[in-house]
Amino acid sequence: MSFLRTATRRGLLGALGLLGTGAAAFALAPLRRVRMAIDDVRRKGRGKHWWGMAIDLDLCTSCGACVVACKSENNVPNNGSAPDHAGAGIAWMNLVPKEGSESNDPIELLPTPCMHCENPPCIKVCPVNATYQNDEGLVAMIYDRCIGCRYCEIACPYSVRFFNWTEPNWAEEHKNLLNPDVSTRPEGVVEKCTFCSQRLRKTKENARLDGRELVDEELQKLPACAQACPAEAIVFGDLADGKSRVSRLSRSPRVFRLLEHLGARPKVFYLSRDRRES
Amino acid sequence: MGSLLEVDGRRGSSELRWWSLAVFLAGLVALGMFGYAQQLMHGDLVSGLRTIGQGGAAWGLYIVFDITFVGLAFGGLVFMTVVRLFHLRALRPLSRMAQIMALISLGMAGLCVIADLGRPLQGLLNFPKYARPMSPFFGTFSLVTCTGCVATFIYLWLDSRADAATQAARGGFLRPLHLLMAAGWRNTPAEAWRHKQTSYLLALALLPFMLIGASTLGFVFGIQAARPGWFGTLQAPGFVVLALISSMGVLTLIAAAARRKPSLAAAIRPEIFGWLGNMMWILTAVYLYIVAIEELTASYAASAVETRVADSLISGAYAVPFWTAMACFVVPAVLLFLQFLRRRVSVATTVICALLLNAAAIVKRLLIVVPSQTEGLLLPYPKGHYLPSWVELAVIGGLIALGVLACLVFARLFPIVPLITLADERSVPHADERPKQRASRLFLTGATLCAGLALAVTGFLLSARFGTERWQDPLVPFSPILFISGMVLIFGSALVYELLPDAGKRAPDPVNR
Question: Does the reported pTM lie above 0.90?
Answer without folding.
Answer: no
